Prior knowledge:
This protein has 1360 residues and is of the alpha/beta class. It has 40 helices and 36 strands. The strands form seven sheets. A ten-stranded mixed beta sheet has the order 1-2-5-4-3-6-7-8-19-18, with helices on both faces. Strands 13-12-16-10-11-15-14 form a seven-stranded antiparallel beta sheet, with no helix packed on it. A six-stranded mixed beta sheet has the order 22-21-20-23-24-25, with helices on both faces. The radius of gyration is 35 Å and the shape is globular.
Amino acid sequence: MSSSPLSKKRRLSGTETKTGSHCSSSNSVRTDLSHTPANGMAKNGNDAEIDEGLYSRQLYVLGHEAMKRMQNSNVLVSGMRGLGVEIAKNVILGGVRSVTVHDHGVAEWRDLSSQFYLREEDLGKNRAEVSQPRLAELNSYVPVTAYTGALADDYLTKFQVVVLTNSTLEEQQQVGDLCHSKGIKLVVADTRGLFGQLFCDFGEEMIVFDTNGEQPLSAMISMITKDNQGVVTCLDEARHGFESGDFVTFTEVQGMTELNGCQPVEIKVLGPYTFSICDTAGFTDYVRGGIVSQVKMPKKIAFKSLSSSMAEPEFIMTDFAKFDRPGQLHVGFQAIHAFQKKHNHLPAPWSQTDGDELLTLAKEVNSAQTGSAKVEQLDEALIKKLSFVGAGDLAPVNAFIGGLAAQEVMKACTGKFMPIMQWLYFDALECLAEEEGVILTEEECAPRNCRYDGQIAVFGTKLQDMLGKQRYFLVGAGAIGCELLKNFAMIGLAGGEGEVIVTDMDTIEKSNLNRQFLFRPSDVTKMKSDTAAAAVKQMNPSIRITGHQNRVGPDTERVYDDDFFESLHGVANALDNVDARMYMDRRCVYYRKPLLESGTLGTKGNVQVVIPFLTESYSSSQDPPEKSIPICTLKNFPNAIEHTLQWARDEFEGLFKQPPENAMQYLQDPKFMERTLKLPGAQPVEVLEAVFKSLVTDCPHSWAACVAWARNHWQCQYSNNIRQLLHNFPPDQLTSSGAPFWSGPKRCPHPLEFSTSNELHMDYIVAAANLFAQTYGVQGSTDRAGVVKILQEVKVPTFTPRSGVKIHVSDQELQNSNSSVDDSRLDELKVQLPSPETSQFKLCSIDFEKDDDTNFHMDFIVASSNLRAENYDIPPTDRHKDEEEEEEEEEGEMMCDHMKDSEEPSTKRVKPVAKSNSLTGVITPTKTPALKRIGQSISRSISFRTEARPLPPTPLRSRAKPSSFPRRRNSQCWSDTVESHDLTAKEIKRQEVIYELTQGERQLIEDLSLVKKVYYEPMLKLEIMTESELGQIFGTLDSLIPLHEDLLSRLERLRGSEKTVGQVGPTLLHWFPCLEAYVTYCCNQVGAKALLDQKKHEKRVEHFLRLCQESSFSRKLDLWNFLDLPRSRLVKYPLLLKEIQKCTPPDHPDEDTLPDALELVQSIVAEVNKKTGEAECQFYRRGLTYLEESQRLPEIRQSRFLFCHGELKNNKGQRLHVFLFELALVLTRPGEDREGGQLFHVYRQPLPNALINLEEIPDGEPAGGGTFRGAFTGGNDKVKNCFRVSSRGRSKAHPYSLQANDSFSKQQWITCLRQAIVQSRDRTAQTSQSQLSPPPDPALYHIAELSLSSDTEMTDHTSR
């Protein structure tokens, strides 16, 4: 083993020194690490510096402070079977101070199933002593000691963290009590076949410094009120993202300066753009500006001891579809311990006798429980399965539980991320045969004295033989690839006649050693695939494995051809980019091969199993587009560090990659000019200008010329361009509405003055000059003194800002600008460019690489970004923070270069990135978005008509949690259920519709039952909400289940032996009256949605609902989607009946009853709709609060329904919530009562609909003629989506100028307003003529258009 990790790309000599070992006592063995590594660091600890080359990826996630805390922790891992060695391996790679591995036992055959550091020649030897030297090779900074003595109290006090595996319950309780009393953090982990258990006790005063590891949020402020609870309103560019209970601080606030630099203030979220803070009534008046930033506050949490927690356990849910499993397994694992204590062995695999005995013991354990650990009724089948497979030892389960346990150790050491509180149970029973009654025999699963005994105990010998014959293709040998290969070897994949083929074109780098555990320092610069193959061959000599160094893509399809794919049983991806994943997915779909897809992103991960004809493929769904930074923001108006980082990244591409590429294409490709001239707009001139600069004006012939180029470019970017910008828009510039131009998101910049004594200025010059020199093959230099001498001779041209230079304020303005080609300049460039035939240039484009500290890439990015940040007074970033964003995805480097046409002239921009406070998110353009399934959530736009909680439209957004698109329902048709038939096409269609009706009932029942079991009951039991609150939210949903079960039963009885349905009309006619129960349910939904949205602001509720939505059972639907299913079902009945009626022949018995049934259900739907509308109108009327008595118009009280309501802006840019009731238009400002309920403060004087004058403002009309338009234009002098309402003959009612979010919303408002005006005037006329009969309900008012969800699409309610 090398004494220290080597520098990246450094090749190791063949005389590498190996570490030895010696016995320090009769009970311990350790690796001799007394020598000093090459970098001078012998070990981790207080004085140790962090090896950033080794730990770079881990530092992105943990940060330096957490890493230093971890380097001061001594860890004991007891039990060196498969689970223990997995935990030890991960902890050692993580970089703690030291690790001691402990075990009394000796290696047995069953250990070889998962203990990858044991070999057949080690049988009979102590597991800890055998494992210690192999574990010590993983990280030379972490001393590893083997200990075989007793875990005495005095010995345990040496450690900060103790991990117990393969231990008795008595030992767990004894060690647990000691650790709890001494402040030692304890992790207990255990696996029993397909079952896993994890327990954490980190003491009574555990401090968590950062609960989630996410970057702190920040937002720009548009308003702060003076009140006993000041309300902060953020700019509407994006939602602030804060949660109630978060702490924030303020900077750059003008006016209310008391907030600047204040101590962190706790907030309460009022809406997506607003939140309340402390008492601001005594502060000075707010003027403008300001940035609010989230502050991560330390959180103190208390753990119970193991003994206490046994009786009163607190469970973490891993699968909400198995809500009752943790309590059952808590009893089951105690029963396993009791069985083992009684018989000195585990239950025999698949022994019915032992299964019955374990069940008896479980009942005894359960009856002895006194606290919440006691379950009402044991799941006997589950306890028996625990007995059947409990003797098993499975590498994949150990890898999973071991990974979680090691992560908890890191949390215990660092105080970063919320620990598990306190019990976690896991099972993978889905791996067993799905057929009912399939039970393996004791004989099939009896031990064979072979390395797979631990696996045979669970699955039997037949599966083991099948695994040995499998032929698998693994693409990528990075961190996930190494873990997969280790598991493949342990489970015996390709251990017989099969084969594993692994391909990876990458070489091993130093930074890989921290997580790609098959590689050692001596392997640096070797090929990953060959090295990984050789390493797993050591773990299991019987595995047949071949390493390739091929890229996957069209250019290697001659290697991975039809014969190759046809011979495979499956493919596993361990890739780092989406394009390569999609390519492999297409190949697997084409050849109908299973695909195992996985990836990681920091602490997050995803797995997708793709099975032909059973699941969707990887490419079947796509992530939403990432939020991009507007081009004009990047070019001229940055306001956050991520803007300057992205700008710097674009600079790198635009200076050192694209121009050399285009210049070389011009010189080498005869068709380059032809293709360039075909580019759209002004791109031909832009490309040829860059080529001309590269080959003529900017071409350096010496190092001094490169320095001069860097100095002049510095002057252009950080002084001249800023001066030109300020010439166009002076600091005191006002918009057409009189507001300061440099306000809100626009920060007023200032030019910089160059100085050789400024370190940042010199950093930029040295990095830029060296990179520029590299592109031309000129020898660079790091001699700063020499660079200063050259700079003193550089003549920087004087710059004077020019008039007439157009600077675009918005992307829309940029798109609308004249982008035609300057033909005269194009002709000049054609003449001035040197002839490709005579030119001897050789330019080299530079691909960005952030992991090499010597290549100037990161130096340039950091300096460029921070200089631009200084221009705009944005707080700078440092190099450490620049790299603390999570690594985009798992290694593998299988980049599909064929996906991009390198022959095309390069004018592309680097992919914009989402907001981050660090550099990693914007410095890896070669790696496309990493995790296809991570952080994905689709929200639809706001309901125009009846959203229950009136919030602005939720944009398409990405969340930091694993998620995927909704899982598809079984789309089976009626014709799929019958083997043959002789029906007419019309009758087939009729049967299909009836079958759809039946299946819809079945699915609704399943969903409603799921809602009750997975949402209602757990929230009640866990006291996430009170029973009263749950009753308000779920309403009478429970009563709907038997109602639909009755219809399903009736429909199934109608289905004859040939699976056809004859007469269905009478059944529906008799059942439809039951739907009157929907009146109560739908009327309740209005208030239910408002309450649910209110409760979502509570972290416990939000966390529970988010976990449910991420679970597989939810199909990625949120709770409200499920609660809204009955209403959706109700409106389908008339549609289905019409389809049945359409397919029913004239002589059919249903011809008489179907029309009656249709009329009945339509009348019920209309009644439900009417009552719901009245309830909705009443709900919002009750939520109105009036500032003046004159605002209480009788028209509001008399209104029976709402035409529409939603968010509009007034002429001051303020957000209003506007209600168009049946008889009045009411403008409000949203607020909350003391309990957090929604209120609407009436703004100005409401308008009776009969007196409204409506004026539509055409888009694009100049802003100068109206008093309101400038506020809507953002400085563009154009209005969009605006209209005005005013009152005839009402002196108190001012005209209201309003702006909708988009043109569609504007049209909806205008249409509804016109209809409301006409109906109100008709009603007035009818009243004056003493026509007492009420007008009919408007035609638009149907339950089909009623959407109580604020996340559903806007519907045109006037088109019906």
